[in-house]
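Much of our argument rests on the idea that a fold can be written as discrete symbols. The record that follows shows the chain in one-letter code together with its fold in token form.
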Amino acid sequence: MKCFLRVTILLLALCGLSVHADVRVSGLFADGVVLQREQPVPVWGWAEPGEIVTVEFAGQTKSVPADATGNWRVTLDAMPANAEPRALVVRGKSTVTIRDVLVGEVWLASGQSNMALRLAELESAKEEIQSANDPLLRTFCVPERPGERPWVDVGGRWLRWSDQTGAQFSAIGYYFAKRLRKELGVPVGIVLCAWGGSSVVAWTSPEALRAPELRGVWPEDVLGSRPNIQPSRLYHGMLHPLIPFGITGVIWYQGETEGEPYQNPFAYRFLFPAMIEDWRSHWQRPELPFFWVQLPNLRNKPTWPVVRESQAEALRLPHTGMIPTIDIGQEDQLHPKNKADFANRLADLVLARHYGRATWPGAPVFQKFEIAGSAMRLHFSSTGEGLKTNDGQKPRGFEVAGADGKFDAANAEIEGAEVVVRSTTVTQPVAVRYAWQATPRVNLVNNLGLPLLPFRSDKFPVAGQEMMPQKLPRKGTLASLVRGADLVLGRNAEWKPSPLAADVALLEKAGVVRGQPTGVCPLIVRDRAVGKLPASPDLNWTLTKDIDANAGLTVEVRVLPHRFGNATRGFDLEAGVKQGDGKLRQYSLTIFPMRLHAFQGSEVRVLGANLDNCTAAHTYRLAIRADGVAQVYFDDACLGTLAGELRDNDAQSSSFIRVGKTTTEGEWVANLDHVAVETGGAFEP
């Protein structure tokens, strides 16, 4: 009973319910908090259901009853900036007094390690920390905490900029806030919400990731991976408790993780804008300002050009901005030490775009090109009084290609606000790229010294693009179909049963074969003996078939799985396609009620969760394209892609398709309607 009581109290606390009469307030509202000026300011917390809660601050008094779950929220009227420390008082059946409250500019600083990096890690910041003394510059650091479900409260405390606390400030956050303090002359608060190595999907809500436009771009979950790259974990644990705290906008430094081999740099152009819109939606501010750092130069990161392009794609959203950094990064440092250069450039952009200061003339951006013989004339915006190089040499970093897509270095000449490029090896150019390397050696700037943004004019495939779902021909009926009962009863000689599956008498005795008039066959799989019936861990059927890897393959099952006893393996659908070099590329799916898992290396990817209607059979289709990438469908919806795994010297010497139970753990029951195969290509339903 005591154990049950402790668990109940914990659950109530996590859900934001008060288990006693004391009124509570969100952890953001702690001593030293900076409230956002010139905006309505939400203040929220928890109390007993129905308890009247009153908030008093700066001459305002707002009251509200706690709702049926104990949540309460009031909204203070917009206030001007104020540097005088005041108290914010929350009264209910008890009283909470929050002291030293200021009103000024509040920015949310988020992303991964380059945003999280503290001043203590910079040798160059030692003197600045030792002389720190500005009580109107403050920060709140959100603890690194993943969440399976949304957290409602946050720990942490507000720190004033001083020699005692300065080492704990985010370097980017501090230098950015320092500039705002100097230019605006008001209190500035930075809410740091960042985790090193995190992925954009970790910061995005499940609702956004399940949106139709993102369906198939990224799995809904990746079981067993680091929490800071698992979808929605950091949104749940770190961001959600901050909503709807009053902020001016967001500064963001992230994308390095998307350049790692286990990520997709091309997908970032869809995921990053979706995350921005997701945050705006939850804050109920469709015009919430959002500014970010484009990835700098760094060695041995071949996909970073694609990430940079994906970051630039998000500029199509209104009230956004991006700073280029290919000229100020440190090519041997994942974490550049000159954080002040990054932060000041970011502050220049924000001061101009949001506060109307003349601090950001704009970096040059490629607009279009014209071809005249073997030369290409390039046009740009934001060139100021013209283009130049920052070292007095000819422009570097340009490449051109012909129709074959093979790029070669090009000579470049500046002509006022334009650049003319040509190559001796590409006499009929069709495309041009600039700074399209991990560490580009570039020198082209406008007259105010801002670098030309990396770009490409072509649509040739780039890294990660091959993993995006493609439009496939539709085909509802596949060439070969076998009904479930016919498969189990051995009525189709092409499908070879496992040893246990071959014992039809035993299967019938176990009640496996029923519903024969419709062809639907219930399968009962156990990892333990029941009575006189043996365990059946390998109840499966295999079709060995010649498959042309260059043509593609489609295989589907229609099945209703239910009563599962294993968390990671269910009804299995596997396919192996022999490649031209003799290796086998294998694809593995496992089907549960309302869930679909795919296996990629050591990862278990949840392609679908909470799929509709677990009381009816559904069609699961694996469409393997000629390029080796498989598209996975649930009924007619594409849930994602799968690269498959290359296997050397595989025991399976030829291409195959296998359905049923292929592991030794767990048990389940599934009604198998049919299995269908088409070796003539990849088709969508």
Observations:
- The radius of gyration is 30 Å.
- The chain has a mean pLDDT of 91.
- The chain has three domains: 102-358, 365-467, 480-678.
- Residues 184 and 355 are 9 Å apart (CA to CA).
